[in-house]
Design a protein that fits this description.
- This is Tripartite tricarboxylate transporter permease.
- InterPro entries: DUF112_TM.
- Pfam families: TctA.
- The structure is a single chain.
- Helices cover about 75% and strands about 0% of the residues.
- The chain is globular and about 70 Å long.
- It has about 500 residues and is an all-alpha fold.
- It has a two-stranded antiparallel ribbon.
- α5 runs antiparallel to α6, α5 packs antiparallel against α13 and α9 packs antiparallel against α17.
- It has one domain.
């Protein structure tokens, strides 16, 4: 096993391979930083080109785009408050607040190093535990998936700061929006109210771009605040704060492990890894009130968690032939185009590909760290453009990206509608993050619970009796009751202290 791994490292060390790593990572960063595009779109566009490449070079190139796209999304999230991809939604909550406070370099440094460390920890997981962890994940059933989704929803609804009632209402509204459209089980339309343009439901990209990008632009246009976020982040500033991330070692390790595990679970993705990492970090933080208002812990958790999912998602791909995310579907397609079948026999029949993918992920993370530090100072100049110049450019990329994803002009109108919706929610002081979380996790929860009930003939008992799902449900109850228990404890303390006074 060691020999093929060393051979793959030797191949990756060749100038041509390093060139593919640098090119893929840089292009992925650019597309990831542009709101509405993202690394996944670039991977799809590059797939036909990889057909003419050597099969290992194709994987190197696509994995580098994958890593660069996830990491690059933090640039616009911090500098503009607009996530370049859904995986950076949580980063925008605190990163942009830090930017407005004149701490753009700190936020970018935390995001860059958090991305690198999360990627390296997930690489260790990929190297050491790929086969056994993929075997364990393959044993999960639908009730287990549903329980984990519920745990993610409960964490943000009941343990975050702010008004819990508004947070819960926002989350439930997100779930409701995710249910609009065609029901694949009953073959009927739900909550469309006669509008055929939403018969297929709301895609995640127009909703998130609308809620975050257009809402932010509307807020900026309507704001009377004349100050602008910090516009300069020199390389020396970024390097000086680069190791600031290690002030939060528990947060880093916890978020990396969460992201790695979320990535291993097929079909979940980097956005959910960031959401759950962020939610758990907020739950255990001593400064919950800072989350959403420029928390360094929030940026670290989000970027560490979303990048760790990349390595985790490669585990089921190379071990079981099951893509862990949408980007992994493209990687799988590239392998099949080159007549290489991913799955349990990949390590035996094609060891150079198996270990080449693992090595490519390592080199891509190193390239990401270097390129992000070098190129971000140039990208920060985008912020210096006047709003009347910047807004049309951002809007153009948003519209192009949203329409090009599904080739539907209706998605552009959906994006505009949710931009107004997000602006209204902000005006009414409803938190946006629970809405986004509900919208992202809602379909997954519905799909898993319906499939589980069909297999159990409508019996809910396995949800509570299976070890994995039962533990997750117990954690849901504990987290939901925690605020109530804390309030009762404080009330009892106040009651006992009164006689003494």
């Amino acid at each position: 096993m060691l020999t093929p791994f060393l051979d793959s490292l030797s191949y990756l060390s060749q100038p041509s391979s390093i060139g593919w790593v640098l090119l893929g990572t840089f292009l992925g960063m650019i597309f990831g930083a542009i709101p509405g595009l993202g690394g996944g779109m670039l991977m799809a566009l590059m797939l036909p080109i990889t057909f003419t490449m050597f099969h290992l070079d194709a994987q190197i190139f696509l994995i580098s785009i994958y890593v660069g796209g996830v990491s690059g999304a933090l640039v616009s999230a911090v500098l503009l408050g607009i996530p370049g991809a859904p995986s950076a939604v949580m980063t925008a909550l605190d990163g942009y607040e830090m930017c407005k406070q004149g701490r753009a370099a700190e936020a970018l440094s935390l995001g860059i190093m958090g991305s690198f460390v999360g990627g390296m920890i997930s690489w260790v997981v990929l190297v050491a535990l790929s086969i056994p962890l993929a075997f364990v994940a393959s044993k999960f059933r639908n009730f287990d998936y549903f329980a984990f989704v519920m745990l993610g929803l409960i964490l943000i609804a009941f343990t975050g700061g702010g008004n819990p009632i508004k947070s819960l209402m926002s989350g439930l509204l997100g779930i409701f929006v995710s249910m609009v459209g065609f029901d694949s089980v009953s073959a009927s339309s739900r909550f469309t109210f006669g509008f055929h343009s939403v018969a297929s439901g709301f895609s995640i990209l127009p909703v998130l771009i609308g809620v975050f990008a257009l809402r932010q632009m509307l807020s900026d246009i309507g704001s009377t605040h004349t100050g602008k976020p910090q516009q300069h982040a020199a390389i020396t500033d970024i390097v000086r704060h680069l190791f600031r991330v290690f002030r939060y070692p528990l947060n880093i390790i916890r978020s990396s492990l969460i992201g790695s595990w979320i990535g291993i679970l097929p079909g979940i993705g980097a956005n959910i890894g960031a959401v759950i990492s962020y939610s758990v970090a907020q739950t255990f933080s001593r400064n919950k009130e800072k989350f959403g208002h420029g928390s360094e812990e929030g940026v670290v958790a989000s970027e560490t968690g979303n990048n760790a999912t990349v390595g985790g998602a490669l585990v089921p791909l190379i071990s079981l032939g099951i893509p862990g995310s949408g980007q992994d579907v493209i990687l799988m397609a590239a392998l099949i185009l080159h007549q290489v079948e991913p799955g349990p026999l990949l390590a035996l029949e094609h060891p150079t590909v198996f270990y080449g993918i693992i090595s490519a992920y390592l080199f891509a993370n190193i390239a990401m760290l270097i390129l992000m530090v070098v190129s971000i100072p140039m990208l920060t100049r985008v912020i210096s453009a006047p709003l009347y110049v910047l807004a049309p450019v951002v809007l153009m990329f948003c519209v192009v990206g949203v329409v090009a994803t599904n080739n539907r002009i209706e998605d552009a109108w959906i994006m505009f509608a949710f931009g107004l919706f997000g602006f209204l929610m902000s005006y009414l002081r409803f938190p946006l993050s629970p809405f986004v979380i509900g919208f992202v996790l809602g379909p997954l929860a519905e799909e898993r619970i319906r499939a589980a009930l069909m297999s159990s003939n409508g019996d809910f008992t396995p949800l509570f009796t299976r070890p994995v799902s039962g533990t997750a449900i117990a954690a849901c109850v504990a987290f939901a009751l925690w605020p109530l228990g804390k309030a009762l404890y404080q009330a009892l303390r106040r009651a006992r202290s009164k006689p003494a006074e």
